[in-house]
């Protein structure tokens, strides 16, 4: 576990309050044994890391795909960093920061002497150039521009001080400054074309720079000489140990497994749960971390007559045995959901008591709602069957197949519609679904507002008009006091489950599987990979 | 000769119709599939929440908000001048993406073609020449197996044996000859089996013909009978199927490039279909159609050189 050093220079109320949060530590060593951290890191060498898909873009300000993020994250430093254990926001490029009481004004004081890879200084004006460029990219920078929604002004106070103001409270913004999406690129990059930037033509601020990138083939990152502004959340703050990282795109799961076993790659996150046992011996280690944010859940379309009834939604929620799903189908790191938020998310509270498996209560709710068991075991009312469809693209499909079996026992028929990502999105966009299935990674509870709010166009998954829960979701985004925000987030999360707005299933986790010669490869707070401390032992 | 020209003209006309149909059908199919490039771009693979406003802006930028017929006519008009538009996913010209991916696929399919011809012809002749019936039967049982096993399965099997266990060849990438062997063999197995199947069937029927008896009666050795006399005639029906063979090689490349993480038009088209990247899919489809048409055209032009009877028959037909 990494211990953040002195944080006396941090002025932020939000940040210091974050220390009060109690987070369940979700790191777990699941196989092999992670090599001892006491070994002395060695400089040099190249690490080969396999990713499964290539999204044709590695610009940190544009990417939103996990595999592309693994590459992009290493090329940029951010204004702040987030402690993976406490959720606390700490300095990185900003040596201090201050947030006003209603979370509308954020002032950052930059550290001295940090530079972009092309030699330009990391100063206040360059922060403004970055954020303006992200806003200009708009939809092509989906994450960054959503974090900067309601941006009112960016004031360069002096060379090292910049103030960012919002027209509405935006408590999530401080955490957003710790993400790769708001990672800083050289001002010269702002005038590079969007497609060229995707292709790797950018000068970053992080421990590695892009040497080459070929879509569908992979990318080579090389160590940035002179980098000495690593955050306190890393084990060391100087230059990276590795000479280079080779990211290779290996779409075939069997190929990834065999290549890791035979030493053709050093590490990957793409080993299937069934193949994980092959790496439980000598010579390999694996480590998992729950992805913070909204867990895998069924989003109910409440504009359909059957799902408008909260009793029906709650019956389905109680009719799912989450323990059985994770115990029989998933890896040891994938936990049953005990809240709409994953346990690695700041402000998470365990609501496992509300989400207990209770088929009897589920059946009673459906009886009461007038759904009687029909001749084939599926409930009916007024000649209509209690049948739903769920549109999904995610694997493993066995999770939903087991949910289907479990729901059949309480008389609910769930039809599984496997679709491409594009088709799933189309269904979500035009509302032609009973349930969609999904999750969203974000290390701030404001993610609840992103996916559940009724009036935000980015995610009316409920398809209802505003209710009381929307007030709670808005309120937490305007609250900087940690204790108050904790209370409101808890209230909102509880309302989301007790009203059956979400049907949480399990917490997704990311698993690194690596050769024993790989050391120091770690997760940052959003369960993205961090290669800053990685080194190769021979 | 004018009959010959008219014949060539008609074949080229037919080829152009095939190209137009390939272009149009791929356009329609991509637009009929739900989900579009704008939504995918705005959402990315990990987000289910897509901002409709942002998507609408992107749709306008990409021209996806115009009526379908207008998009089609504009795109077709530009395609006729060689401009296949810009990839919606990468923002780069579709032609450039094809040009970058092509060499890798050409090397792979070219090598696989050579391997499948050598292997297929060799197997057919070996089976035909052997006098031991058990050996001939076992040789002849190989092609039906070869054409029926899935390409990705062959690829994984070869990977397991020659890359992961024996460590003779790399499992991924485009790093020179070493990385070419396994993927090329993967594609060559079904294609070679196809060649062997056609040629041995054709050899058998040629050998049953009366003139072979005449050759044998003249005292020619069995090898001479088969290689010098039967093979030449048996080649023609096989040659006519080169178009199908090329199609098999290209579709094999789609799967193989993915299994072996190689660059190429196969990987390009898979990614493009997933991203609903219409311009890129279309240029690959049109390219594949061109290859198919040209291969068939060449076969039709070369066959008469091998067997004069084909020219005569077709000329007579064309003149009628």
UniProtKB/TrEMBL annotation, chain B:
PROSITE patterns for this protein: ABC_TM1
Localization (cell): Cell membrane
Residue ranges of domain ABC transmembrane type-1 in the record: 102-303
GO biological processes: transmembrane transport
Coarse class of the protein's main subcellular location: membrane
Source organism superkingdom: Bacteria
Chain ranges passing through the membrane: 12-33, 106-127, 139-160, 180-199, 239-260, 280-299
GO cellular component: plasma membrane
Name recorded for this polypeptide: Peptide ABC transporter permease
Membrane topology annotation: Multi-pass membrane protein
InterPro entries: BPD_transp_1_N (IPR045621), MetI-like (IPR000515), MetI-like_sf (IPR035906)
Keyword field: Cell membrane, Membrane, Transmembrane, Transmembrane helix, Transport
Family: Belongs to the binding-protein-dependent transport system permease family.
